[in-house]
Design brief:
Largest sheet of chain A: 8 strands, parallel
Distance between the termini of chain A: 58 Å
Helix content of chain A: 25-40%
Number of strands of chain B: 17
Oligomer: heterodimer
Strand order of the largest sheet of chain A: 8-7-6-5-4-3-10-9
CATH superfamily of the largest domain in chain B: Dihydropteroate synthase-like
CATH architecture of the largest domain in chain B: Alpha-Beta Barrel
Shape of chain B: globular
Structural class of chain A: alpha/beta
Strand order of the largest sheet of chain B: 10-9-8-7-6-3-12-11
CATH topology of the largest domain in chain A: TIM Barrel
Number of domains of chain A: 2
Shape of chain A: globular
Largest interface: A-B, 73 and 93 residues
Radius of gyration of chain A: 32 Å
Distance between the termini of chain B: 66 Å
Chain lengths: ~400, ~475
């Protein structure tokens, strides 16, 4: 009796009880009907000549060697291209900036580095306000001493924290705050242009009437610098402000609140006044826990549509990542388990920025130095070739971790 | 081909069409609609599964509704965790379905105290977010000792002290085998089969019918080779680990690997890529320099990247609240169904201990709006009645111009809540952002309207300044 038979018999005896096993001994063959036998403990390797009476275990041919298989890269075709928008102007271009940035130019979704390299790294800009405003403590500690002086504030951002651009927000022009007149607001812009040499983006107060007046004056004093105007929206008199901004060589941000139809509508209206290469769009982003999924999906859809050929959405995307701080988790005091707000805030902002980056954002407005440092590192890492990696993979499985 | 929505008719034809209601729906058509929306599984139709005459249809239906990414189950005696089961690459194409479970690691050289502490966090982590409890899901037991006996002891300790399903992590099949003996009644996930140990691991997985991770960090050809071989070996509950590399020489690979695999699974129906993807942000701890905080920080970043892009399971080492909190909320957000607004039930909410002179406020039923407003009122220790009206899950800001914040809806809730018997006054405080509807709301309800603040954080101040007897009296006189 082969060892296989022996094993089979002993298993059968275990399964069937001694009576049946005895019968099997006696007759050497037994036909079982309507019986299910579990043979998971039994290794059956069938070879010709083996006697396996009436039992029909599943015959499996298990591979003994690896079956070599290639991973093919995805096949994809994108027909659209995001326009390239140039921000800022150097001396030779009629301005006084020490650098310019180009954003956009994508032909594949964000960081599909296996398909195409990123044409231009996204730009991370830092927010500066033209008056002392309420800020979360974790941010305030970095700027407290310069918050009365936007020029100094901007300098701090560039010199100490490596801001690639400055977003100057003229919030004091709000009729319900200080109602600063446009001419005075324009002076602040001049001061900031003097103080730092990176390209500048200038925002208003959000009042659609006042902003038009403010932006006109701002464009006048910044002529030639190719500043970015933040932002135009559907509530504004675009026929009033549009031509002016065109003459003064400004770039504009078209803002719409998480609505692609509106984004298209606004872009269409702006085409009457401005060349495509001077429009970026802000489809609005919210922080983690505060609607980030809406902002993320609108942004991702906008970019995919652009790459599939929707010409009205082929613009670089702006992400107001500072919105992350609206989340209470970013700034309130919580039970000690959740950690100090000094780290919860920055991680909130950094991750919100990362999510926007993955959706396709090109231009980031941020506040906390550490979140900004992290996002710039992420952009750097993700901009590298995906095929060049550390030779030894990380051994987390068996390592003692700190 | 990417997943295309199926017509309910197509599904209906495969159902018994007896309208037996065993599934809990009124009729087979209603069940078909829920099936194509992926809200229920075909198995809820018991006749379909049990009656041999439907067998063919059942098989057809299963194939029709097959996810592009295989769904696998990991279980403890008490809990089941679903991994994978996704249909689409981009959430707007339909929705993501199964939020990636988060596993917290322990290792077999940790003393009991440390084990207990980590188990406690994995087990009891809770965060209340828009009325849901966000939690962690699994414990990953790693063998650092590489000693089967020691691993066994640790797995026993974890099994005895936790209700969570396990991931058993070691590349040594003997170690895994020893650990398995200590997970009675569970279905742990095995990590992992590699090019060096795949036969032994495959054998363990096959013998015990367990899900198995296939791991080939940095080499996608080998990953597919292993998946293909193990499929042929008869295994179907596989998961793929392409390796989670970080930093300047790796993060780009990681993002590309996850993206390419998911693209091939969802858009090209390449079956070998159609297994759940395992992300291991825990890698940060063995491959990055820096202090603990730096590593925890980058682990959070890496995990957030993989939640956004396609991981179906995450293994983490950090147990710090500030690392886990943004991750569980982000995960919840990204896996929210974009087809449905996140809404709460309309109706009356009583906040604090209001009396007949307390204010009555109105807000919309977008979940976030409701929880923020309610939270602000509570934080200000204000006793009041809050009427939540059906804005179809839109925020007040969008509902007003979108004609979803309707005066008739306010009247409806006013009526059904019986609030008129609870307060003496007849004044509604409406959101500042709905100011332009004040007149219409007064007309529809017969109540006076007070326009509240633009942001709910100012409600306490508003109530303190405006909700005074003389103001109320004045208003009621008009």
């Amino acid at each position: 009796m082969s060892s296989l038979e022996e094993a089979l018999r002993s298993k059968l005896s275990e399964l069937l009880g001694s009576k049946l096993a005895e019968a099997l001994e006696k007759y050497g063959e037994l036909v079982l009907e309507d019986v299910e036998i579990e043979v998971d403990e039994l290794e059956l390797v069938l070879h010709p000549g083996a006697i396996v009476p009436a039992l029909k275990p599943p015959v499996e041919v298990r591979p003994l060697k690896l079956i070599e298989t290639k991973f093919e890269k995805p096949k994809m075709e994108w027909t659209g291209k995001v326009v390239e928008v140039k921000l800022g102007a150097t001396k030779s271009e009629g301005g006084t900036r020490d650098r310019v940035h180009i954003v956009g130019g994508e032909t594949v979704p964000a960081f599909y580095m296996f398909a195409e390299p990123m044409p231009h790294p996204p730009v991370v800009a830092m927010d500066v306000f033209d008056m002392k405003i309420r800020l979360p403590k974790a941010i305030k500690v970095h700027f407290e001493d310069v918050m009365d002086d936007p020029a100094e504030w901007a300098k701090r951002c560039v010199e100490k924290f490596g801001a690639e651009m400055i977003n100057l927000h003229l919030v004091s022009t709000d009729p319900y705050i200080k109602d600063t007149p446009p001419s005075e607001a324009a002076k602040t812009v001049e001061e900031v242009l003097q103080a730092v040499k990176v390209p500048l983006c200038v925002g208003g107060s959000g009042d659609p009437v006042k902003d038009v007046e403010v932006f006109k004056k701002v464009a006048d004093v910044a002529e030639g610098e190719r500043i970015v105007i933040n932002s135009l929206n559907l509530d504004m008199k675009l026929d009033d402000i549009g031509p002016h901004l065109k003459d003064k060589d400004c770039v504009v941000i078209a803002f719409t609140p998480m609505d692609l139809d509106k984004a298209r509508e606004l872009n269409r209206k702006l085409y009457d006044y401005l060349p495509k290469e001077r429009i970026m769009m802000d489809t609005n982003i919210a922080g983690i826990g505060y609607g980030i999924e809406y902002g993320f999906t609108v942004m991702e859809r906008a970019r995919l549509a652009a790459l599939m050929g929707d010409k009205e959405l082929q613009h670089p995307i702006v992400a107001g990542v500072t919105n992350a701080w609206a989340a209470r988790e970013a700034w309130i005091k919580m039970d000690p388990y959740w950690g100090p707000k000094e780290i919860r805030g920055p991680i909130w902002e950094a991750i919100t920025g990362l999510v926007a980056l993955l959706a396709g954002a090109d231009y980031f407005m941020m506040m906390h130095p550490f979140s900004i440092k992290t996002l710039k590192e992420i952009i750097d890492y993700l901009g590298k070739s995906p095929f060049e990696i550390e030779e030894t993979p990380p051994d987390w499985v068996s390592a003692k971790l700190g | 081909m990417p997943w295309k929505a199926i017509s309910p008719i197509e599904v209906y034809k495969l159902l018994p069409r007896t309208n037996c209601k065993k599934c809990g729906e009124e009729n087979c058509m209603a069940f078909a609609v829920r099936l194509v929306n992926l809200e229920v599984k075909p198995e809820k139709c018991t006749p379909l599964v049990e009656d041999p005459k439907y067998r063919k249809n059942y098989e057809k239906l299963k194939e029709l509704l097959r996810p592009m990414v295989r769904e696998i189950e990991v279980r403890s005696e008490k809990k089941t965790v679903i991994i994978g089961g996704e249909y689409v690459m981009f959430r707007h194409e339909m929705t993501y379905l199964n939020p990636p479970p988060i596993a917290i690691d322990v290792d077999d050289t940790m003393d009991k105290e440390e084990l207990a502490k980590r188990i406690d966090i994995a087990e009891n982590f809770r965060y209340e977010y828009i009325g849901r409890e966000l939690t962690l899901d699994l414990i990953a037991v790693r063998s650092v000792s590489n000693d089967p006996e020691q691993f066994k002891k640790t797995v026993r300790f974890v099994s005895n002290n936790s209700s969570l399903p396990l991931v058993l992590c070691s590349l040594n099949p003997d170690v895994i085998k020893a650990g398995l003996a200590e997970v009675p009644g569970g279905r742990p996930l095995l990590y992992a089969a590699t090019k060096d140990n795949w036969r032994e691991m495959a054998e363990l997985a096959r013998k015990h019918d367990l899900p198995l991770v296939v791991s080939s960090p940095g080499n996608l050809d080998m990953l597919m080779t292993l998946a293909n071989t193990l499929e042929k070996y008869g295994l179907s509950d596989l998961a793929l680990d392409p390796g989670t590399f970080v930093g300047s020489k790796g993060l780009s690979y990681t993002l590309s690997a996850f993206t390419m695999l998911r693209w091939r699974a969802c858009n090209e129906d390449y079956r070998l890529a159609g297994y759940p993807l395992v992300g291991t942000p825990i890698s940060v701890w063995s491959s990055m320099n820096g202090d603990k905080q730096t590593k925890a920080w980058w682990e959070a970043i890496t995990a957030a990247m993989l939640i956004t892009r396609y991981a179906d399971l995450l293994i983490l080492h950090s147990i710090e609240g500030w690392v886990l909190l943004p991750l569980v909320i982000l995960r919840f957000n990204i896996y929210t169904d974009p087809r449905k607004p996140v809404a709460v039930e309309p109706g009356l909410r009583v906040i604090g201990d209001p009396d007949e002179n307390s204010p009555v406020m109105v807000t919309g039923n977008f979940a976030l709006t409701y929880y923020i407003v309610a939270g602000d009122i509570e934080a200000g220790k204000i006793n009041c009645y809050l009427l939540v009206i059906d804005t179809e899950g839109l925020s007040v800001e969008s509902a007003v111009p979108g004609r979803k914040f309707l005066p008739e809806k306010v009247a409806e809730v006013l009526e059904s809540s019986g609030i008129a018997e609870k307060v003496k006054h007849r004044i509604l405080i409406i959101p500042g952002k709905a100011a332009r509807l004040s007149g219409d709301i007064e007309d529809a309800t017969g109540w006076k309207v007070m326009v509240g603040p633009l942001d709910s954080k100012d409600i306490p101040k508003f109530v303190e300044e405006k909700w005074r007897p003389e103001v109320i009296e004045e208003l009621m006189k008009e």
